[in-house]
Specification:
It is built from 14 helices and 14 strands. The chain is α/β, with parallel strands linked by helices and 478 residues long. Strands 1-2-3-4-5-7-11-12 form an eight-stranded parallel barrel, surrounded by five helices. It has a two-stranded parallel sheet with strand order 6-8. Strands 9-10 form a two-stranded antiparallel ribbon. Strand 11, helix 13 (395-414) and strand 12 form a beta-alpha-beta unit. The structure holds 6-O-phosphono-beta-D-glucopyranose (BG6).
């Protein structure tokens, strides 16, 4: 095995799926607090008002807010060197547009980072993970409004200053490229058209969506610049949902189609965040789609001056695309679905498992950008069964993680500068797409059911002990 000595083995989470305590400590509500629970077959619903007759999984989640000491102690027991978490923007600025931050919110993350420091765990902190303060969506119309850039930057400055000596690794926006498809309008941009019935299939105005995304890219760049000014040691990254796609057939039209999809979904945002300019291929895309981005005088400079230091991404699955054989069996996946790949098996939730695709993807990314890479999400959502003796034998999760780590090893041997791996997730949390508890990714089981019952007790699964060994041997004992 070839993992560097200082390799950041860890686990990743997100505030809206993990913290709970959604109004405690003066926290304001955020967009994800308005999403009901669902399942593979029942869609989550976005409600403008909190309906007392519906269930909203983020409100309690698995209550990291009150269990952080216990959880971080367990992460330390596993030997985790890095813990990716997100700060809930609305815990720091409950409405988003205040001048003064909420001290109780700031103090909570102080306590969390101090707890990490106690065990030498490096926090990797995302500034926004699908949880814009609700007030900014409602009163300002989200990132379509340039004022929201300033609110975000004020928030970023506040936390960079406060946690200057506690956090080095930052990520601006989780899966920023989700905004390249209509479904990402709400969770990245805070856009919701009143004609929309189902937020996952919104009434989409690409002109507005790409204008708002332009503002998010500016907000990210401004934050990066400020983060570097506050502390030159800060390492600030982009975060891309990389959905790796293969042409279903060798037909040149399929090849070209995949290249275009790759550009528009996987590459566009990172190209801007890493190179500081819009890539050439977007000119034609905007022309063909009648999109005209309004740039203000300083925008080009802002993007240039706010380039990120490292590339982070989520990788769960891959799929196929085709314009030649459009009617083949389809498969679902993280954010993007596609055509089934006959060579791959799928998870219980229909996501195709493709470890070799991870090596391919790491090489693609490194070849394109030549900067350090961190995989900040990768894992298996599955149903777990607690056996009579109280153990959870999740060999399928071990198999999944093992196969992906083996391909990471190959990629490092290929020459890729991979600096860390925060698997999704060290502990069971709410699923983002379905709002379920039973779609579990964790190495630690949490006793909570979809109906909200359960003791919230934490129980290490078999994979917990396996990952502990992996970390202890720096990837040798798989
Ligand atoms: C990523 C998100 O898209 O996928 C996470 O950043 C999410 O928030 C993860 O939880 C897994 O998806 P899901 O829908 O199975 O929870």
């Amino acid at each position: 095995m070839t993992f560097p000595k200082e390799f950041l083995w860890g686990g990743a989470t997100a505030a809206n799926q993990y913290e709970g305590a959604y109004t405690e400590g003066y926290k304001g509500d955020c967009i994800s607090d308005h999403l009901t629970s669902g399942s593979r077959d029942v869609k989550r619903i976005f409600t403008a008002e909190i309906d007392p007759n519906k269930s909203y999984p983020s409100h309690e989640a698995v209550d990291f807010y009150h269990h952080y000491k216990e959880d971080i102690a367990l992460f330390a027991k596993m030997g985790m060197k890095a813990f990716r978490l997100s700060i809930a923007w609305s815990r720091i600025f409950p409405k988003g547009d205040e001048e003064k931050p909420n001290e109780e919110g700031l103090a909570f993350y102080d306590a969390v980072f101090d707890e990490c420091a106690k065990y030498d765990i490096e926090p990797v902190v995302t500034l926004m993970h699908f949880d814009m303060p609700f007030h900014l969506y409602k009163e300002y119309g989200g990132f379509l409004n340039r004022r929201v850039i300033d609110f975000f930057v004020h928030y970023a400055r506040t936390v960079f200053e406060r946690y200057k000596d506690k956090v080095k690794y930052w990520i601006t926006f989780n899966e920023i490229n989700f905004a390249c498809i209509p479904m990402g309008s709400l969770e990245i941009l805070g856009l919701y058209d009143s004609r929309t019935i189902d937020y996952t299939e919104p009434y989409d105005v690409p002109q507005k969506r790409y204008q708002a995304l332009h503002h998010v890219l500016l907000a990210s760049a401004k934050a990066v610049k400020i983060g570097h000014e506050i502390d030159t040691n800060n390492r600030i990254g982009c975060m891309i949902s990389h959905v790796t796609q293969y042409p279903l057939t060798p037909h040149p039209k399929d090849m070209l189609h995949v290249q275009q999809q790759d550009h528009q979904f996987n590459d566009f945002c990172a190209d801007v965040q890493i190179r500081g300019t819009y890539p050439y291929y977007m000119v034609r895309f905007f022309e063909d789609n009648g999109i005209h981005i309004k740039w203000e005088e300083d925008d080009a400079n802002i993007l240039k001056e706010g380039c990120v230091d490292y590339y982070t991404f989520s990788y769960y699955m891959s799929n196929c695309q085709s314009v030649i054989k459009e009617n083949e069996t389809r498969t679902s996946g993280n954010l993007l679905d596609g055509i089934s790949n006959p060579y791959l098996k799928t998870s219980d939730w229909g996501w195709q498992i493709d470890p070799i695709g991870l090596r391919y993807t790491l090489n693609k990314i490194y070849d394109r950008y030549n900067i350090p890479i961190m995989i900040v999400e990768n894992g298996l959502g599955a149903r777990d069964v607690v056996s009579e003796d109280g153990t959870i034998e999740d060999d399928y999760r071990i198999d999944y993680l093992k196969a992906h780590i083996q391909q990471m090893d190959e990629a490092i041997k290929d020459g890729v500068n991979l600096i860390g791996y925060t698997m999704w997730t060290p502990i069971d949390i709410i699923s983002s797409s379905t709002g379920e508890m039973k779609k579990r990714y964790g190495l630690i089981y949490v006793d909570k059911k979809d109906d909200g019952t359960g003791t919230l007790r934490r129980i290490p699964k078999k994979s917990f002990y396996w990952y502990k060994k992996v970390i202890e041997t720096n990837g040798e004992a798989l």
